Amino acid sequence: VQLVQSGPEVIQPGESLTISCQTSGYNFAKFWIAWVRQVPGKGLEWMAIFFPGDSDTKYNPSFEGQFSMSSDRSRSTAYLHWSSLRASDTATYFCARHRTSGDGKYDAFDFWGQGTTVTVSS
Amino acid sequence: DIQMTQSPSSLSAFVGDRVTILCRASQSVYTYVSWYQQRPGKAPNLLIYAASTLQPGVPSRFSASASGRDFTLTIDSLQAEDFATYYCQQTYTYPRTFGQGTRVEVK
Asked: Which residue of B has its CA nearest to A93?
């Protein structure tokens, strides 16, 4: 199993951006993909999850409306998209495979991408 | 949201020491807790899930336990590669919140 994320980005405030998470080694449509933010020098923040099988989503209310998620099942790739970035979006964004067990007891992020660093600055 | 509070925020230890990190949930999360290790500049790595189950491939010097709302990660005989930041996460409800992290540094 591998998750490979797109490269670092330097973006001006107000611009749009899409970053990607290309997966391999497992059935992409059957596992949720999680997105996790890490602001420089800070901890991990759970943003949202996306299910490629039916495009179902679950958002952290703290982040809802700030970005969108999608996937291309033919490429086994998940995407995170912002329409208008702010300086406060400067962070490293990780994708991870979200292993689930129905009731959540055995849930975990078992494989991670290497992270995409997004810098929003004028 | 459920808050996961880790203590201490950081600690210093020698190679060979036994280290314990505590994570307390703001409400019951049963045994729905995972632990991750993050080395500087790297992605997190899953260590433990379901409060005490070791992820395959993780060294047996890592262990974890649960008691009520308190969760403990223990590293027996700390190795050089274990100096990192450790995070707990609850998987009981959405959003799946993380603790703020515990940094383990060389003494």
From this structure: B43
